[in-house]
Design goal:
- The complex is a heterodimer of chains A (249) and B (266).
- Chain A has 249 residues and is mainly alpha-helical.
- Helices cover 77% and strands 2% of the residues of chain A.
- Chain A contains ten helices and two strands.
- Chain A has a two-stranded antiparallel sheet with strand order 1-2.
- Chain B is α/β, with parallel strands linked by helices.
- Helices cover 38% and strands 25% of the residues of chain B.
- The chains are: A mainly alpha (249), B alpha/beta (266).
- The interface between A and B is medium-sized, with 30 and 33 residues.
């Protein structure tokens, strides 16, 4: 046993009761956490796909949300209606159903789409809708006088949106966007349903081939928690860098 | 802290640890519990035709369900179905949510490391099937093909072993998704039981689905938690009686349309 693994096993053994637990109905289940270490490469690969899908969905989804929020705030009437319909349809239907529609119906339209691409598309579309609504709230919080002043100074509509409206709006709603993103990252666990091999898919496969469900589900829970806290820390750093320190200099 | 308080605290600690550690030496067996509560909790998978399905009224039906009902009747117990996906068949049992799983679980040595098998009550074949337009005649033809399989099934345990390197195996969480992937063209072929294959082919004549390869044939039986020897022995006795009197053969014939092969015991 390599030293790192021995140390980790030591930690597990040191916690009283981790080796053997009795469930409520008197069911005995002996924990074998060794099996988790044996498959750490698979689990890391799954977690890595979860991180990649979530990060890409954040970047592309934010761009989509910004465009949609602008269209909703300043676009022509027809465009506003289309954006409103998109936001309402996505926010009022289950994420799993959205994933199934993209994955199973696109091939019927002659569009070849793999599981990972379908998962990413669904996550972008989903985050885009929630992001649009959150950004809209931020945009509405910008005082109208500020916008009038920018227009009076000769800035175009787009320039006003970019420099005068978007920045303070983003600062106001950043915590809400960060929370929505964490929800999306956790919701990405359901894309295993369309055969994308992210953390939950790997966990499901491992538990069904090793028959150690509790070990793998506990470990996956810990990994999701670590990823959520990690993403929160990164987003907190971005907030500080862009909106706190960036403003001061 | 006064001496009295210290004594009190120590006594409470001892009492608390006794409560935590105590495990009655003569614990009631699962069979005793079923008999005294007159209730049998059976984990079933209703997304696995013809073994487990939901009928028109949303009630569980299928050969596994019929076996479970007959077994509960002879136990004198009311039946409570615990519906699980294929991936939940063993976890639901281990977590104590069900007393027995009757969900056409094929006997494998790997599964026997986690749960105890009763004697087999049926047999099934795993086959690979797909549209006529997809050319698969031998295992070697699988190279480069996308083959859909369902997690926690016999096909998951056997197809990756028989498929040559270069086969793109695609995993789904339940049979319904695997079937949908085949029908929508997300996979070139799919592996499932020959019975499920027939159900899917009959329901989709326009897709021209055909049998390509036989992967394996296996026997399946009920599973109980490790150490539930009394319950296993009772179920084995029940299977013996109902093999002799033809009940199991009648159920199998009714739902699968084929004759039950001679059942081995172990």
């Amino acid at each position: 046993m390599p030293p790192a693994r021995r140390a980790a096993q030591g930690l597990i053994d040191a916690v009283p009761g981790t080796a053997k637990r009795t469930f409520g109905s008197g069911v005995h289940y002996v924990f074998h956490f060794n099996v988790v270490w044996d498959h750490w490469r698979d689990l890391a690969g799954g977690a890595w796909l979860t991180i990649r899908l979530s990060s890409l969905a954040l970047v592309i989804g934010m761009a989509l949300a910004t465009v949609c929020a602008y269209a909703k705030a300043a676009g022509p009437g027809a465009l506003r209606l289309i954006v409103a319909a998109y936001v309402e349809v996505i926010r009022n239907t289950p994420f799993l159903v959205q994933i199934f529609i993209i994955y199973f119906s696109l091939p019927a339209l002659g569009i070849a789409v793999g599981a990972n691409e379908a998962a990413l598309a669904a996550m972008v579309v989903n985050f885009g809708a929630y992001g649009t609504e959150i950004l809209r709230a931020g945009i509405e919080s910008v005082p109208h006088g500020q916008i009038d002043a920018a227009r009076a100074l000769g800035l175009t509509r787009l320039q006003t949106f970019r420099h005068v409206v978007l920045f303070p709006a983003l600062k106001t709603v950043f915590p809400a966007l960060a929370s929505q993103f964490i929800l999306l990252m956790l919701a990405s666990s359901v894309v295993s349903a369309i055969s994308a091999v992210e953390l939950t898919a790997v966990t499901n496969s491992l538990q069904s081939t090793t028959f150690r469900p509790f070990e793998f589900y506990f470990f996956a829970t810990a990994l999701y928690l670590a990823m959520a806290l990690g993403f929160r820390a990164v987003l907190g750093g971005i907030y500080w860098r862009v909106f706190v320190r960036g403003r001061r200099s | 802290m006064s001496k009295h308080l210290k004594h009190c605290a120590r006594a409470m600690l001892v009492a608390a640890s006794a409560l935590l550690l105590a495990h009655p030496a003569s614990a009631e067996s699962t069979l005793d519990k079923i008999l005294s509560a007159k209730k049998l909790r059976v984990a079933i998978d209703v997304a696995n035709p013809p073994f487990g399905v939901l009928d028109k009224n949303g009630q569980p039906d299928g050969s596994d369900v019929a076996v479970a009902r007959a077994l509960a009747k002879d136990l004198g117990a009311e039946i409570e179905f615990v519906q699980v996906p294929s991936t939940g068949r063993i976890p639901a049992l281990l977590a104590g949510r069900a007393d027995v799983t009757i969900a056409s679980i094929s006997v494998t040595t790997d599964r026997a490391k986690a749960v105890m098998f009763c004697n087999p009550n049926g047999a099934l074949s795993i086959t690979i099937f797909g549209p006529q337009s997809v050319h698969i005649k031998t295992p070697a033809d699988l190279v480069g093909k996308r083959v859909g399989i369902t997690r926690a099934t016999l096909e998951e345990a056997t197809v990756p072993k028989m498929a040559p390197e270069g086969t793109k195996i695609v995993w789904f969480d339940d049979l319904a998704s695997t079937v949908q992937a085949l029908l929508s063209g997300q996979v070139d072929a799919a592996a499932m039981t020959a019975f499920a294959e027939k159900t899917v082919s009959d329901a989709n004549p326009g897709k021209h689905l055909e049998n390509k390869l036989l992967v394996t044939t296996a026997f399946y039986g009920p599973i109980v938690r490790p150490s539930d020897f009394e319950l296993r022995q009772w179920i084995n006795t029940w299977i013996f009686i109902n093999t002799q009197n033809g009940t199991l053969a009648a159920i199998y014939k009714k739902y699968t349309g084929v004759d039950l092969p001679p059942l081995p015991t172990f």
